[in-house]
Amino acid sequence: MSGGEQAPAAAGGAAAEGASRIALSAAATELLRLLHDRHGPLMFHQSGGCCDGSAPMCYPAGEFRTGSSDVLLARLTVEGVPEPVGFWMSGDQFERWRHTHLTVDVVPGRGSGFSLEAPEGVRFLIRSRLFTDEERARLGD
């Protein structure tokens, strides 16, 4: 799994040694390499809206305009991709999920037509687990 670098405290919690809010599965890492080769630098946004809005959406970096209420959870390091992949989440969704560690994974099926992986016959998906007491302490939550 590839880990992420945490955003500043104002944007979702200070970085802490050995603690992160988000990671990538091996399948997500592989898909991000493919998408980067086809589309260049990438970013994610997770809105928490209904339907496909509740799945992480992958875009060319900068194509989705983030707002002042969006939280930068991490700049994910992806092996084989030269620049980090920013992972943004709507502020409301972050408040609901701030106590969970998230893993971006890939499953068969078509998600939204707006996310770059849609033509590949797969979609990104979030898997989550509660933070341990130690992780919460490291993150300051």
Which descriptors apply to this entry?
single chain; 141 residues; alpha+beta; Hypothetical Protein Aq_1857, Chain: A; eight-stranded mixed sheet; 3 helices; 8 strands; disordered N terminus
Can you give a write-up of this model?
- It is a single chain.
- The chain has 141 residues and is α+β, with helices and mostly antiparallel strands.
- Helix content is 20%, strand content 34%.
- It contains 3 helices and 8 strands.
- Strands 4-3-6-5-1-2-7-8 form an 8-stranded mixed sheet.
- The chain is globular.
- The N terminus is likely disordered.
Short description, anyone?
With 141 residues, the protein is an alpha+beta fold. The protein contains three helices and eight strands.
Fold blueprint:
Layout: E1 2-6, E2 22-24, H1 26-39, E3 42-46, E4 57-60, E5 70-76, E6 85-90, H2 91-97, E7 100-108, E8 122-130, H3 133-139
Protein name: DUF779 domain-containing protein
InterPro entries: DUF779
Assign an overall shape.
Answer: globular
Mean pLDDT: 85
Poorly predicted residue ranges: 1-16
CATH class: Mainly Beta
Number of strands: 8
Q: Percent helix among the residues?
A: 10-25%
Rg, please? 14 Å
